Amino acid sequence: MDGGLLTEKLILVVALFSITLLIAMYSTYLERKVAAWFQDRIGPDRAGKWGILQPLADGTKMFFKEDFIPLNSDKWLFILGPGIAMFTALMTGSVIPWGPNIEAFGRTIVLQVADVNVGILFIMGFVSIGVYGIMIGGWASNNKYSLFGAIRASSQMISYELAMGVSVITIVMMSGSLSLRDIVDAQHGMGWFVFKQPIAFFIFFVCALAECNRSPFDLAECESELIGGYHTEYGSMKLGFFLFAEYINMFISSAVIASLFFGGYNFPGMDSFTGNTLAIIGTLVFFAKIFFFIFVFMWIRWTLPRFRYDQLMHLGWKKMIPIALVNLLITAVIIAAYNGWFNK
Amino acid sequence: MQSLSNRSKLVSNKKLSFMEKLYIPVILGGMWITFKHLFRKNNTLKYPEETKKFAPVYRGMHVLKRDEEGRENCTACGLCAVACPAEAITMTANEREKGEEGLYREEKYAETYEINMLRCIFCGLCEEACPKEAIFLTDRIVPTNFERGEFIYGKDRLVEKVDARIDISARQFTGKRKI
Q: Could you read off the pLDDT of A36-92 as tens digits, one per residue?
């Protein structure tokens, strides 16, 4: 391992870390602004011009609040919960290809922290570890509401992960690789998988909403029934971690949706650019797609009411999984027929 | 039962059709509605900076008026206190001394005059009862406070200052005096 690679990766990690945090920070601001626009309001506009410093003000408030741990809670698990949530949320960004390669300092810089050959599996794995953050946090709080929220969150995430996984398998079959960079490269130009696999995209999108605990599947923190859900007992920056992790997850799932179905950094007419120009435009296109999906997430949140819990389970097990499986089967048959495997 | 308004609707428990069960058309319709709201004008009034204009008949904080020469109109007759349905007004009367002609309009005046703003319902009956056009309700808002005692307004806060007259022309429907 040479020093150049190490520096390059180190810079990439730090940049990715800070960009993720920055985007998550401003997602909270954007969420409040978007909510306000949808409801014919102005939204936060006091901290700085257009309220642009609002996330800083919120963060400062969170930091200076009392760091309270309930007497009957399991102290270590109580601290561990938000830590796991934040850790897993941040880890998933490492395998996403953020743009085409950059040529600089006489070397090719890959805009991806790690091109793991099982990239999408890595993301799915970390997302499912993310359940533990919520589950442990809810359990350690020693509070009925928190426990209910945690149980709801974990069962919901487990049920929706199945359909999500199956819809990912269709994409993996089409691209022939589990590596996210290969999947993105398979969608060169306008050959985005959303046009070939609209049903898989739909299922993946709905499951992504459920995985992020976003509305209309935000039963884990449904205020009217469970006060705050799994983070009822949390305050200060530990609560901030949970909320922050949710926004990072939203950012990452937008990135995953964009790279699996909307071609990642591919855009129509990309063949007329080369080298670093292509890298810069590609990265910008990728981020535009991500922001679009973040907006759609918020759009859905401020449009749809929450599902009832049995409806959620009904949708997950009886609708999403069968549709995903049938879609997988049809895709498999078509791929096999296309490659002439039936004729052998 | 026969409907009187013709607006009642029968409850329908019909099964949803396949398209309705999909929910997606309805969801997209809902999202289209919220999307249209993105471009609507907002209804927000940035309160401390902007204030809404009150209606001319708005009844806010009271004022005890002075006449053109700066003399208090109130003669402590007590009609406002009698008229008050909330028992919010109390006063004590006193006789005008020699040399106080510039302060009080008539021989009798209110030595103290208190309105409990927490009791007051801002009905304006005191204003109607007053024979001397001394008390009026204005378009000012009674400010908030942390102490209950602070809501009992004495003459120091009710009587208008000679050099800072309160405009009540919108409410002066009798037209006897102009200030």
A: 888 888 888 888 888 888 888 888 888 888 888 888 888 888 888 888 888 988 888
Measured in angstroms, the CA of B18 and the nearest CA of chain A are apart by 13
Does A36 contact B42 at a Cβ distance shorter than 8 Å? yes
Nearest to B34 among A36, A42, A303 (CB): A303
- Sheet of strand B108-116, all strands in order from the earlier edge strand to the far edge: B89-95, B108-116, B152-153
Mutate to test the interface with B, among A40, A307, A319 (most CBs of B within 10 A): A40
- Chain B nearest C-alpha distance from A42 (Å): 7
Q: For A73-77, A112-116, B172-176, which range has the lowest pLDDT when averaged over its residues?
A: B172-176
Phi then psi dihedrals of residue A343, to 5 deg: -85, -10
Q: Which amino acid is at A318?
A: K
- B-chain CB neighbours of A38 within 8 Å are 34, 37-38
CA distance A221 to A235: 15
**pLDDT tens digits for A81-106?**
888 888 988 888 888 888 787 777 77
pTM: 0.78
Q: Which of A296, A282, A286 is nearest to A259 (CA)?
A: A286
Domains assigned to chain B: 62-171 (3.30.70.3270)
When mean pLDDT is compared across A104-113, A181-190, A272-281, B77-86, the lowest value belongs to A104-113
Q: Give domain limits for chain A.
A: 3-343
